[in-house]
Amino acid sequence: MLALSILGFLAERPMHAYELRQVISDLIGHNRPVSDGALYPALNRLRQAGHLERHADPGSEAPTRQVLRITDSGRAELLRRLSEPKTTEITDGGSFFTLLAFLSRLPQPEQQAAVLRRRLDFLTQPASFFSHSGTPARIKDVDDRYRKGMLIMARAAQRAEQAWLEQTLTELTGGTAGAAEA
Which CATH number covers residue 70? Predict the structure, then answer.
């Protein structure tokens, strides 16, 4: 998701690495802090792949800084990653939110809807933090107050996300939010 974040933010505007680390941290940092040890190798991989280029930007009162820009190849890679997310990018909440942060970059509403449908399909599958042989735990059967709290909060968040996905899919598709049209 770090590469997706890099490409997504640089598609918005060129930035130097420090600024890029700040905006990525603002997006995902509370869950996964972005260290220089992760950022710079990712930037180098993207540069070696031809997805980014670096240019010197002489400052008027500051030393010269290296500014990163996305290339045409990087834009194509961003669109590929957005339109063809891995299963874990759909099923993991933090990864999906990172994907969602840049989904508007996909040019066609149908492409955006296809990604949202995958998430909605995932959310409508029976699942729970505490399941027994694949059967989701029922809140009333959980005795531990904190585990019960986890279930209550997770299910409320899931219902809210499902409602948002259904509404957004209806808007994107002109009234048909169903998964069957994918």
Answer: 1.10.10.10
Contact yes or no for 78/11 (Cβ under 8 A): yes
Asked whether residue 96 is domain-assigned, the answer is no
- Domain span including residue 136: 108-181
**32 domain-assigned:** yes
Structure tokens that stand for 91 in this block: 């099923």
Phi-psi label, residue 60: left if phi above 0, alpha if psi -120 to 50, beta otherwise = alpha
| First-residue to last-residue Cα distance in the chain | 25
Residue range 122-164, pLDDT digits in tens: 998 876 666 666 677 778 888 889 988 988 898 899 999 999 9
pTM of the complete model beyond 0.85: no
Instruction: Give, in order, the Cα–Cα distances in Å from 90 to each of 9, 13, 47, 157.
Output: 20, 26, 26, 16
